[in-house]
Amino acid sequence: MDAPISGHCAPGFAAVRAAFSGNFAERGEVGGAVCIIKDGETVVDLVGGWADGARTRGWTPDTLVDFYSVGKALVAISLLQLVDAGRIGLDDPIASVWPEFAFGGKETATVRHALCHRAGVPAIATRLTNDALWNWDAMTDALAATSAWWEPGTRHSYHTNTYGHLVGEITRRVSGVEPSAALRSIAEPLDADVWFGVPEAEQLRCAELLWEQPATVPDPFALDGDARMTMMSYFNPPGYCSAGVVNTPEWRAAQIPATNGHGTATGVARVYAALLEPDRLLSAALLAEATRSHSEGFCPTLGEDVTFGLGFKPTTPRRPFGPNPASFGHFGTGGALGFADPVSGIAFGYVMNHVIPRWQSSRNRALIDAVYACLPITG
Hints:
The protein is of the alpha+beta class. The protein has helices spanning about 15-25, 70-85, 110-115, 130-135, 135-145, 160-175, 180-190, 225-235, 250-255, 265-275, 285-290, 360-375; strands spanning about 5-10, 30-40, 40-50, 65, 195, 260-265, 295-300, 305-310, 315, 330, 335-340, 345-350.
């Protein structure tokens, strides 16, 4: 059965439609969407395929889907806005606004460390159940009570799931606003359909995530060293990485900003387009600071060398956001992606429901390559 594809594609961007169609025909896509905004104008806004594994429900422009770590940049924007406003500094200790965090060697951890994965808490040390996962205070209390896995600032490891609770709680301590409301305050003026905690009335729009998850998982508490830390980062609580719970109402409604942000490709692209507008979401100076490299080197959680900015990942040869070195964004598990390219004026959003390993995939790479094939060569 051919995948249904619909939406808008400007004549000069026909290659993107072809690549999107090719994802279904050649690269195993089930359902998804892509949106490209150039210089403030939407030039591509396509949806295709199915929102469920049985292929009975077509993907529509308002289909929501979990975009995983794409949400890390979104929760970071809320904290960066407070930095811009002078309400907290990048090099202020986290404990200056969250006193309970000054436990177990974490008193020197700063806001900058939190934003670039150097704060030392990629995993929670106390064994938790999924009941805690649905409770913001239970998760942040457990995070504060976890001793640093290393001296903050001396190394990094991807805070794959704790990132949202860490950055989100710093934001809440400063502003009094939880991540769900903080994101809505950013999204609503942009008409960006992105959420932390999908309201019950909106959950009928959610696509089914299709992910072949492991049948068994080793007990993280039986491991040692970085292996223990890494497995705990994914599976303490057991559903922290969404395993076994991703399509449940509880998961969709919870605030787990590093992992369970939901939205449309258009919503993601609109946020990145707004970042390209001077001083709209962030000041030019802080955006430049946030999108440069702050930490480089081997990451035990990801098992490879990585580069982190402050909430955003700068483009790298290993994980490029097109050819221009000023591009920045964030991938999500399975290939979801949001990024912006200040040189070409491109804002890009891509979401899908068939999860394949890691971030960069043949599908998002095909779309990125097609976008730049449509642009004039510069430089």
